[in-house]
Amino acid sequence: MEPIDFLIAWLVTGSSLLLISQLPIGVEIDSTPKAVFAAAVLGILNVLILPILKAVFLVPNVLTLGLLSGLFAFVMNVIIFATAAKLVEGFSLRMGIWSAVLGAIALALVSSLINGVLI
After folding, report:
1. Cα 55–Cα 72–Cα 58 angle in degrees, nearest 5
2. Is the Cβ–Cβ distance between 12 and 118 less than 8 Å?
3. Phi/psi at 91 (nearest 5 deg)?
4. What does the domain layout of the chain look like in residue ranges?
5. Is residue 29 within a helix (H) or strand (E), and if so which, with residue range?
6. In this structure, are residues 53 and 69 in contact, taking their beta carbons and an 8 Å threshold?
């Protein structure tokens, strides 16, 4: 992956966070710099924590023969989203886990739409 691809992904995630903070789902971000920083933290958490979460969910995934792999991937994204909100000052979830669930869904949708326009 080229460095410019990382930069584009970072900016797309940051702008997506700003957009979803305008929705009434309980995701609050104080400013644009906080959104960009939160996007960086999300990226770092995806690199560091996602492999650990995949290992944790490996056994249940195998036991269900992969039938619930989509659900497990969604739960992992919610965990990472909530963790980023805990780590970044100025990025908060007003309704707790429900904001994390809605925020993870919204982030996936908005990022996909923005990436669809860019590519």
Report:
1. 25
2. yes
3. -120, 110
4. 3-118
5. strand 27-29
6. no
CA distances from 51 to 62, 64, 109 (A): 16, 19, 23
What is the pTM assigned to this prediction?
0.93
Give the helix/strand (H/E) hosting 12. helix 3-20
The length of the chain, given as a count of residues: 119
SS3 108: helix
Alpha carbon separation from 20 to 4, 56, 104 (Å, rounded): 24, 29, 10
**Structure-token pair, residue 101:** 């669930």
What does the DSSP assignment read for 74-87? HHHHHHHHHHHHHH
Residue pLDDT tens, the chain, 119 long: 789 988 999 999 999 999 999 999 999 999 999 999 999 999 999 999 999 999 999 999 999 999 999 999 999 999 999 999 999 999 999 999 999 999 999 999 999 999 888 86
Task: Name residues whose C-beta falls within 8 Å of residue 72's C-beta, 6 or more positions apart in sequence.
Answer: 57, 60, 61
